[in-house]
Amino acid sequence: MAKLALPRIGSILEQRQNRIEDNLGMAQNLKRESEADAKAYEAAIVEAREQARSSIQLAIKEMSEQSQRRQSELNDRLVAELKSAEERIGEAKKKAMSNISETAEDIVLDAAESLIGVAPSKDSIRSAVLNKLNERLEG
Amino acid sequence: MAESHNPLDQFVIQSWVPIKIGEFDASFTNSSAFMLLSVICATALMVLAVRPRAGVPGRWQLLAELSYQFIAKMVADNIGKEGRVYFPLIFSIFIFVLFGNLLGMIPYSFTFTSHIAVTLTMALLIFIMVTLIAFFKHGMKFFSFFLPEGVPIILAPLMIAIEVISYLTRPFSLSVRLFANMMAGHTLLKVIGGFVVPLGFFGFVPVAGLVAVMGLEFLIAFLQAYIFTILTCIYINDAIHLH
Predict the structure, then answer these.
(1) What is the pTM of this model?
(2) Domain residue spans in chain A?
(3) How far is residue A121's CA from residue A118's CA, in Å, rounded to a whole number?
(4) How many domains, in total, are found in chain B?
(5) Does A20 contact chain B (CB < 8 Å)?
(6) Is the pLDDT of residue A138 over 80?
(7) What are the chain B neighbours of A10 within 8 Å (beta carbons)?
(8) Is the Cβ pair B65, A13 closer than 8 Å?
């Protein structure tokens, strides 16, 4: 019993105990590794979240600046176009006025001749019409 | 015919192979045969069951391993590290007594542990071995075992007498406990069994009793082997540590 059976059973139990302890040790190491990986993963997620947040803030800032720049450019262009349009309107108005003045002078000359039979001078008619037009425009 | 119903017939030693050495009768008896069978069965269980050396044990290997661990724990709990030297002996005693008790449960077999000659021989061997261990380990200091510490000097003679008697009766209490339990159990089985046929229709009553006592006997077979072994451990522990 002491030489044959018991040492054999003892060695089997010892081998099994060693195997169990090895496996437990391995499991412990794997657990530690997986915990380290989980921590690294968490850190990576936090870092990625921070990067995403800063990227979003940068993009918002750039878009805001771009929007302001475009708004400013649009304003400048509109002001310039308005100014040009006003100038064109002024010239058109001036041209229209001069046409109206000539027509009015002819009408006044014909009307004076018909009413009083005397044709006033062209200069007096022009100055009278111009004065009246200026009064209307100013009024 | 009447003799065959005697409940004590089952304990009769029968000489199977008569051997005489001078005046000494060394015959191979039914008791010897069952002792040999017990050794063969125990060895077969412990050797053949673990032969596969499986990492995940089968039924027989598990039985052998559980027996080993059971006794190893008993030795560690009762003797400590120093008990490892005695582990093979204690294990052999346990398995030998257990197989002796269990083989006796087979109908028409012989229970060698129901003989005081067998149990007393074992108990005396253990007693002598334990005493020798104590002497070799402690020398004359061994006698301090008979006077527990803290005993008033006036009580010393009485205590020494009690302790010496207690120590000297160990082999008898150890052997009588096992022998008496096994003998009483088997006699009871035979007596109850003797009621079955004479009671005719009502024979089922003693049969039910037989089943119950049979269960109890299996329990006692394990329990007595355990008690015999644990007392051996306690005696060895006393020899090593002196209280």
Answers:
(1) 0.72
(2) 32-138
(3) 10
(4) 1
(5) no
(6) no
(7) 68
(8) yes
